[in-house]
């Protein structure tokens, strides 16, 4: 990102930010960033509103969108400033739960491909906390093969009429806008007949059904789109060239925390890696046995390796030492590390992870985290798909056989579209 205004030295920025945070942002309460997904709807809406307010505080203080250009409401600073922001924000409450997917990947995709009007209309609104975005990518017929989208957009003058269904949209019921991949041409091979649109989520023609997960959370949604009209001015990039956008979209999605272009704060995601495992081991008494201490050591080593990989991958991509597709390395290691961390945490929590008293509630939550541990291997593309990308696109191994690559999508054998 380039800006004509002189760049503030990183250490001056740190001092200014540190003073502002101390004066303005609330200190994070215990357990901040470790939502357990079982909140009531009222509590969930309260947390979302709190996040909007915190985002607005960052915006008003001049600290929202550190690397986003000034013309779109950001600060026009560098990834180095963003890293400083990530270090200094630790310990303070901040709008951690609306960063994904509003900023990564939605804002990132708009910055890469949006028109000036689209960027000016939406990026500042995101930075102020006025617009929370969701990605409408996965479909009931399958999420891994994104290019097989069956949700269809048909042109009608200056508008498009969209029909179909999207699924696994996290938090669509409390969000404002969606970034949607749809099929605009059935007579060409699957990758060549897609287009990308943006649309308000709450409008006639979009029915949102909520899905209850294993942990009781109803954050996941399935949307049914029936004759939804979208103006052509809300199309992102060229008609039928949605796969060019899609490849970049997936790059942003996979490189959460590993991006050479870090447009959102990282470090204190909901239920993220790390955490005070030693404190947990003390609470459960596992700090006194050798096996418990070994597990804490392993978790620390894993967290540290993950942290260093988070620096190394963007460096290699930014210096073109490797391809953008290497972002899949971060996705794979994030997924497998997440599973191991949840397993270690569960073991350290001991029997309280399965049956707990009110005083042991924090230990009890670890059991829920264990049950949900596979989410890190599925969300944002599965670890199996990451392995495919790494072998084919990073290591240059032969491509997986695909019977549908060169025939019109209309003739491809596929699962029937999902009906209500
Ligand atoms: C926490 C969470 C949040 C999510 N949020 C969103 C969201 O906001 N928006 C959205 O659109 N989606 C979202 N998703 C959906 C997610 O992107 C999909 O679940 C994921 O892409 C996998 O698609 P699927 O579940 O349809 O599985 P499928 O594609 O049906 O795959 C089933 C299994 O087959 C494997 N598989 C499939 N193809 C291959 C292949 N070629 N080689 C090897 N193995 C293969 C997969 O790895 C998987 O194990 C979310 C998922 C989770 C868990």
Description:
By secondary structure, the protein is α+β, with helices and mostly antiparallel strands. The chain folds into three domains: 98 residues, Orthogonal Bundle (Butyryl-Coa Dehydrogenase, subunit A, domain 1); 175 residues, Butyryl-CoA Dehydrogenase, subunit A, domain 2 (Beta Barrel); 109 residues, no CATH class. Helices cover 41% and strands 13% of the residues. The protein contains twelve helices and eight strands. The strands form two sheets. It has a four-stranded mixed sheet, covered by helices on one side. A four-stranded antiparallel sheet has the order 2-3-7-6, with no helix packed on it. Strand 6 and strand 7 form a beta hairpin. The N and C termini lie far apart (45 Å). The protein binds flavin-adenine dinucleotide (FAD). The site of flavin-adenine dinucleotide has 21 residues, from strand 1, strand 3, helix 11 and helix 12.
How is the secondary structure organized here?
Elements: H1 10-24, H2 41-61, H3 79-89, H4 102-113, H5 116-127, E1 133-136, E2 152-156, E3 159-170, E4 177-183, E5 194-200, E6 206-211, E7 220-231, E8 235-236, H6 242-254, H7 277-284, H8 290-318, H9 327-349, H10 361-371, H11 375-378, H12 383-394
Parallel strand pairs: 1-4
Antiparallel strand pairs: 2-3, 3-7, 4-5, 5-8, 6-7
Helix pairs in contact: 1-3, 4-5, 4-6, 8-9, 9-10, 9-12
The structure holds flavin-adenine dinucleotide.
């Amino acid at each position: 990102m380039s800006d004509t205004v002189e760049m503030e030295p990183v250490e001056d920025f740190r001092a200014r930010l540190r003073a502002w945070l101390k004066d303005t942002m609330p200190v994070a309460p215990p357990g901040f960033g470790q939502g357990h997904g079982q909140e009531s709807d009222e509590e969930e809406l309260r947390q979302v509103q709190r996040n909007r307010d915190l985002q607005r505080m960052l915006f008003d203080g001049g600290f929202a969108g550190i690397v986003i250009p000034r013309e779109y409401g950001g600060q026009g600073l560098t990834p180095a400033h963003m890293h400083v922001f990530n270090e200094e924000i630790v310990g303070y409450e901040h709008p951690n739960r609306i960063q994904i997917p509003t900023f990564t990947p939605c804002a990132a995709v708009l910055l890469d491909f949006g028109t000036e009007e689209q960027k000016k209309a939406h990026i500042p609104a995101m930075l102020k906390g006025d617009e929370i975005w969701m990605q409408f990518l996965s479909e009931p017929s399958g999420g891994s093969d994104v290019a097989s989208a069956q949700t269809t957009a048909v042109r009608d003058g200056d508008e498009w009429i969209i029909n179909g269904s999207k699924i696994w949209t996290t938090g669509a019921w409390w969000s404002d806008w969606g970034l949607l991949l749809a099929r605009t041409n059935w007579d060409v091979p699957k990758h060549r007949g897609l287009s990308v649109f943006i649309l308000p989520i709450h409008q006639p023609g979009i029915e949102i059904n909520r899905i209850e997960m294993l942990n009781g959370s109803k954050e996941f949604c399935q949307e049914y789109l029936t004759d939804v009209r979208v103006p052509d001015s809300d199309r992102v990039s060229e008609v039928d060239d949605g796969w060019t956008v899609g490849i970049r979209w997936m790059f942003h999605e996979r490189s959460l925390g590993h991006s050479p272009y870090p447009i959102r704060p990282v470090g204190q995601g909901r239920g993220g890696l790390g955490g005070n495992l030693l404190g947990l081991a003390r609470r459960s008494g596992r700090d006194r046995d050798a096996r418990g201490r070994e597990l804490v050591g392993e978790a620390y080593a894993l967290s540290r390796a993950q942290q260093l990989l988070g620096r190394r991958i963007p460096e290699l991509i930014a210096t073109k030492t490797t391809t953008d597709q290497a972002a899949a390395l971060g996705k794979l290691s994030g997924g497998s590390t997440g599973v191991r961390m949840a397993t270690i945490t569960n073991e350290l929590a001991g029997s309280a992870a399965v049956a707990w008293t009110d005083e042991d509630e924090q230990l009890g939550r670890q059991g829920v985290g264990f049950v949900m541990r596979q989410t890190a291997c599925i969300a944002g593309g599965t670890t199996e798909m990451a392995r495919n990308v790494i072998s084919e696109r990073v290591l240059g191994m032969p491509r997986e056989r695909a019977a549908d690559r060169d025939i019109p999508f209309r003739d491809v054998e596929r699962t029937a579209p999902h009906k209500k």
